[in-house]
Amino acid sequence: KLFFTDYGNAAKVERCDMDGMNRTWIVDSKIEQPTALALDLINKYVYWLDIYLESVEVVDYQGRRRQTITKGRQIRHLCGLAVFENYLYTINSDNLSILRIHRYNGTDVQALARLDDAKEIRVFQKRTQAAVRSHACELDPSGMPGGCSHICLLSSSHKARTCRCRTGFILGSDGRSCK
Fold first, then answer.
1. Alpha helix stretches (DSSP H) within the chain
2. Nearest to residue 51, comparing CAs of 70, 67, 65?
3. In terms of CB atoms within 10 Å, which end of the chain has fewer, N or C?
4. Distance (Å, rounded) from C-alpha 94 to C-alpha 91?
5. Are 177 and 41 spatial neighbours (Cβ–Cβ below 8 Å)?
6. What is the pLDDT of residues 110-155, one digit of tens each?
7. What ranges make up the beta strands (E) of the chain?
8. Domain layout of the chain by residue ranges
9. Distance from C-alpha of 71 to C-alpha of 74, rounded to nearest angstrom
10. Which runs of E-coded beta strand occur in 85-150?
11. Which fold has domain 2-125?
12. Around Cβ 157, how many Cβ atoms within 10 Å?
């Protein structure tokens, strides 16, 4: 799945398959300007910063069990968001510090370090790295990903795929070759 935020005409948190199909709104009320998103891949939670409402919130992958982690004026200066164990990590763009926020008790906030110029933060953890298994976009005998001549996108599962073409090309009637 691909998770993303939008704060155009109607602010929301959404998800879709990697090929853009099955687009689903997860959060579409009491949200104004979601600017950063983080996933808890193990427990299947979506966290986001709303700099207009000055809040950090969380829902499960279906948009249920919504909770506010923390609120306050300091939120408007945050950018980037990552989850690791019991904490959320973010960057305070006001003083360029890395902040650690307890994700179950939003009042426990600590500045960890200062950086020169950061806008995003990522945490890499072995448990959240998916094990490589066979999937629909593996190279076929002729070296084409998933049998697609240009781009192979995983669909609703690791066994399904959609072929797409680079700009200026059109997908052929076979659903795999680009012309």
1. none
2. 70
3. C
4. 9
5. no
6. 778 877 777 788 887 777 666 667 888 998 888 899 999 999 998 8
7. 2-6, 12-16, 24-27, 34-40, 45-50, 55-60, 67-71, 78-84, 87-92, 97-102, 109-114, 151-154, 161-164
8. 2-125, 132-178
9. 8
10. 87-92, 97-102, 109-114
11. Neuraminidase (2.120.10)
12. 10
Strand partners, 46: 39, 59
**Nearest CA to 22 among 168, 154, 171?**
154
Sign of CA dihedral 171, 173, 177, 178: negative
Q: How far apart are CA 138 and CA 135, in angstroms?
A: 6
Per residue in 23-60, pLDDT (tens digit) is 999 999 999 999 999 999 889 999 999 999 999 999 99
Q: What CATH number does the domain located at 132-178 have?
A: 2.10.25.10
Q: Which pair of tokens denotes residue 82?
A: 């990552």
Two structure tokens written together for 84: 């690791």
Closest CA relative to residue 82, chosen from 65, 107, 101: 101
Give the amino acid at 147.
G
